[in-house]
Amino acid sequence: MKAEDFPLHDNLALDFLDHLKVARGASPNTIRNYRQAIGRFVLWMRRHEGDPRRADGAGVAWKSLKTPVMREYLQSFLELPPKDPRFAIFQKLKLMPLRRSSVLLHLSALRSFYKFLVRRKGFSNNPMKGLMTPKKERRLPIFLQETEVEKLMDAPLKMKRPRYDEWQKWRDKAILETLYSCGLRIHELAGLNRQCVDFRGATVRVMGKGNRERIVPIGRPAISAIQSYLEQRGACAASEALFVGRDKKRISTRGLQRLLKPYLKHVGLDPHLTPHKLRHSFATHLLNRGADLRSVQQMLGHRRLGTTQIYTHVSTERMKKAYDEAHPRAK
Predict the structure, then answer these.
(1) Among this protein's residues, is 209 annotated catalytic?
(2) Is the per-residue pLDDT at 172 higher than 80?
(3) What is residue 184's predicted lDDT score, i.e. its pLDDT?
(4) Active-site pick, 86, 100, 209, 261
(5) Is residue 159 within 8 Å of residue 266, measured between CB atoms?
(6) Domain edges within the chain
(7) Of these residues, 185, 233, 266, 280, which one is catalytic?
(8) Any catalytic annotation for residue 279?
(9) Which of 100, 246, 276, 318 does the annotation list as catalytic?
(10) Where residue 114 falls among pLDDT bands split at 50, 70, 90?
(11) 161 tagged catalytic
(12) Which phi-psi region, left, alpha or beta, contains residue 59 (left: φ > 0; alpha: ψ -120 to 50)?
């Protein structure tokens, strides 16, 4: 179910979403996910009132909710037997049991909401405080091999696309090169302006999550691709946006996601891979080649080192090399 399917009319919820946007500088993706999480909870609450199809969010007694209710909610989308009378309703509303990662996101949204209510709205009760949440799944990031990345970087100029102008081919190459060279999130790439790229200093100024700015190195192949693209794009040269679509406006994150698929097919890779996999590849390849964890953390824009450490589990090449060189009976 999409976020726009939850037309919340609850003033507290709307104030919270505004707070995320203005005070915390949350990304549109985060705001959409949190809106959807609160909307899902509202739909679940409606079954107590006999009308689970309502999703306006009005009249929810946020101040009086207790931990047992939140615990029941948690259980509801971890386990929902087909014989349960709610099953058909939730199936129709596409509110079926979620993956563990999605469960954690929804609960994180409600935790943040109640922290906001306590700190900004004077609530004394926080039903999320005593709630035990399921442990996060430790899934290893999916990444591309270096040879696969090389093929992908070459694809925009090699692939025949009759409806494409020359500047679009160079734009796509510049986008792929920049994603991989800088390890950017897709919304960070979409938000880049031309002045964000320091061609002489070989760095990019990036506005990350929570409006936290960072400087990231950029490789010469990416710089060369960007320069070639800017020379070619002509009529839309006046736009301050670095990457634009055919309409001469800033390319959207959805447009960036669609852009990758044909190139993945062209080089024989899974077309369902997302642009974020280039970020995973960026981090993994740096660590494989000896980059220190702290530097990779800064380049990725992670607040916690633990978030970056997951990439050490997939950086096996460096580990194997160290083993072969140091262990007396490795060979």
Answers:
(1) yes
(2) yes
(3) 96
(4) 209
(5) yes
(6) 3-121, 146-323
(7) 185
(8) yes
(9) 276
(10) very high
(11) no
(12) left
